[in-house]
Amino acid sequence: MSKEAVAIGDVLSVVLKRLGLDHRVRVARIAQDWGRLVGSKIAQHCRPVAVRGRTLVVNVDSSVWLSELSQFFKEKMLEQIHGEPGGKSIKDIRFRIGEI
């Protein structure tokens, strides 16, 4: 019986998906690099909190920032996320007022 080496990342990816935790890992990766992805000024006012389907849910600290992000920064944020490993699975961002 021959045993072939398999990359640990491939194994973890399958296990996380089977356990339904792949969304949480995606959010954690995005959250870890959030300041770099969106810039420190924007990161002070918002934080990714969940993935629902293919939508990243981002809490924002005020209605003013929610409006600004939705109208002027959403597309750029998606571009930055798409450049990250696994980021292309995110197709939309939903902003909501919440704790950051």
Secondary-structure blueprint of this entry?
Elements: H1 8-19, H2 22-32, H3 34-38, H4 40-43, E1 46-52, E2 55-60, H5 63-82, E3 92-97
Parallel strand pairs: 2-3
Antiparallel strand pairs: 1-2
Characterization of this structure:
By secondary structure, the chain is α+β, with helices and mostly antiparallel strands. The chain has one domain: GMP Synthetase, Chain A, domain 3 (2-Layer Sandwich), CATH 3.30.300. The protein is built from five helices and three strands, in the order ααααββαβ. It has a three-stranded mixed beta sheet with strand order 1-2-3, with helices on one face. The longest helix has 20 residues, at 63-82. The mean pLDDT is 87.
What is the strand arrangement across the widest sheet? 1-2-3
Strand content of the residues, in percent? 15-25%
* Number of distinct helices: 5
Structural class: alpha+beta
Average pLDDT works out at: 87
Question: What series of H and E elements makes up the topology?
Answer: HHHHEEHE
The CATH H-level superfamily is: DnaA, N-terminal domain
Task: Identify the CATH architecture.
Answer: 2-Layer Sandwich
Backbone shape: elongated
Helicity, as a percent range? 40-55%
**What is the CA-based Rg, rounded?**
16 Å
What CATH calls the topology is GMP Synthetase, Chain A, domain 3
Q: CATH first level: which class?
A: Alpha Beta
State the assembly state of the protein chains: single chain
How many structural domains? 1
* Uncertain segments: none
Report how far apart the termini are.
52 Å
- Describe the sheet with the most strands: 3 strands, mixed
Number of strands: 3
